[in-house]
Amino acid sequence: MSSEWVTLCQVTDVAREDVLRADVGETTMVVVHTKDGSICVLAGECTHGRAHLAEGFVHGSTIECPKHNGRFDAVSGAATATPARMALEVFDTRVVDGEVQVRLSSSFVTGREGS
Amino acid sequence: MIDADWYRPQIDRNELKALVTGRSVLPLVHLFVWVALLAVSGWWAHSAWGTWWAVPAFFVYGTLYGSTSDARWHEFGHRTALRRAWTNDVVYYIASFMTFREPESWRWSHARHHSDTIVVGRDPEIAFPRPTPRIRVFAEFFGLLSARNELVKIFRNMVGRPAAPQRNYQPEDTLRKSQFWSWVFFLVLVAVALCCIQIGSIEPALFVGLPSIYGKWLLMAYGITQHAGLAEDEVDHRLNTRTVHMNFVHRFLYLNMNYHLEHHIFPNVPYDALPRLHELVKEQLPPAHESVRDAWREAFRAMSEQRRDQTFCHSVKLPESAA
Fold this sequence. Notes:
The structure holds two protein chains of two kinds.
Chain A: E1 3-10, E2 18-24, E3 27-33, E4 39-43, E5 57-59, E6 62-64, E7 71-73, E8 79-81, E9 90-91, E10 93-96, E11 99-105, H1 106-114
Antiparallel strand pairs in A: 1-11, 2-3, 3-4, 4-9, 5-6, 6-7, 7-8, 10-11
Chain B: H1 13-21, H2 26-48, H3 54-66, H4 68-77, H5 85-98, H6 103-115, H7 134-140, H8 144-158, H9 164-169, H10 175-199, H11 203-207, H12 211-214, H13 217-227, H14 237-240, H15 248-254, H16 260-265, H17 274-281, H18 292-306
Helix pairs in contact in B: 2-3, 4-5, 8-10, 13-18
């Protein structure tokens, strides 16, 4: 399936050890800027309950859910602390000229534009 | 109701982030002082064994063991007290034994308590279901009901047959961990009992095991202030949770859980940052109770009324600016 890169935000929009919400169509994501400077894009909702991780907090390279303190590794998406147990989806991400871009399938992007 | 949108006061993101991610050495200091107090009071109790001084000594030791372990269980269970998750977990498991709560099931129970605070049929930690008989409140000052219920839960876990309520809030694939910890608890208690028989004295059990019962009174005194007599089935913590002012001794023993309303709204904020959080959001919350006695008066009055009218609850006046 073909895909294309979609710009979500500027790197400078997300402080170190912080998180920003990014929505594309009906997909809600979070852009995580880790302590060591990595930029990661993950699914935005906690896999335990409906809480948006953009309201959570970043500790090093871990993102913590604001509702129950469940934790995820921002790089792999793996759940690292209960009550979170299922991994978050991690999107292919790149930074080009200071822009955070995420790879989404073309059908999704086309569908979004057509909707 | 895990999906419900609960009320959140306005707070600057950067200020909240600073409270959550800023670290102080206070939790380590508090932990050290608490362990030291347990050790000193335990030494006093052992030294006084056989004299009447053993009574006040075990009273102090038992209260530290049976009551204040609850606050450690709670804070370290949220993994917000110390930086590393595993260090929080070590304290959590020890405090779980001291307060006599099987650690795995209580993790899930407490997550549900935060999802569905005082929602009947969902929250497994409603301490005072309506109507609460006086005898139940009295018995809980000695931890009698909670100890009996936990013993039953532990025995059921040991044989791999957890009761339906536990299965309701705990994922199936974590029940094996509950089984493991139930056996650990059981074997430790059996070892203590054998030790008592061996030396012909109840003293070992007064140090390990029984304080979870005879030292429970202060936990009850604090616990009543949290939710008792307030609204059920609301998605606004201001209507079902209290904040109570306490002096610094009580705040140390209780690890700032007197800021219970702030804790429920922002569970990521470490306990040592709760006084600062309170200052930031207090205008948007109901006024804090001035004392434990003040909160007790309200809670007991409401519970008394609920014995006549189960629908009664103390109605909280919300600040007009944030209603």
